[in-house]
Design brief:
single chain, 110 residues, mainly alpha, Arc Repressor Mutant, subunit A, two-stranded parallel sheet, two-stranded antiparallel ribbon, 6 helices, 4 strands, DNA-binding
DNA sequence: CGTATGACGGTAG
DNA sequence: CCTACCGCCATAC
């Protein structure tokens, strides 16, 4: 039980706040949590995200690349979900990333 | 407790 | 812009 609360739950909370059609980066989440240097930890937390029902498909790396799509059920499920929300994704790469980017440390602050 | 790993980020070249 | 290396924090073994 204690293995679930803490940093992980904090990551899931932020990811759940991501609006549809928006995406954020691991570094942005880590930055919001205070552990900005540990973007890796965010990805590590996402490893269990599928058991939390977290929309991890809205979380991509700094380049807007769907690095974690391999962790999803299908091969292109993550891409399909994003395109379904209005995000254009080509070859695992989000197009117009700046237009879809959602920074919690900014959006939740303003 | 020490080592290895991880869906990354930033800087350097 | 692309490639390569280091650093970062937390979890697992």
């Amino acid at each position: 039980m204690k293995s679930n609360d803490g940093f992980f739950e904090r990551v899931y909370e932020v990811v759940r706040l991501i609006p549809e059609g928006r995406v954020t980066s691991y570094g942005a989440i880590a930055n919001y949590l205070g552990t900005k240097g540990s973007a890796r930890m965010v990805g590590w937390a996402m490893n269990s995200s599928h058991t939390k029902g977290v929309p991890a498909h809205r979380v991509v790396n700094r380049k807007g690349l769907l690095t974690g799509k391999h962790h999803f059920q299908g091969t292109n499920l993550m891409q399909q979900l994003l395109e379904n929300e209005g995000v254009v994704v080509i070859d695992n790469q989000i197009q117009n990333l700046e237009n879809h980017f959602w920074d919690p440390s900014v959006e939740l602050t303003r």
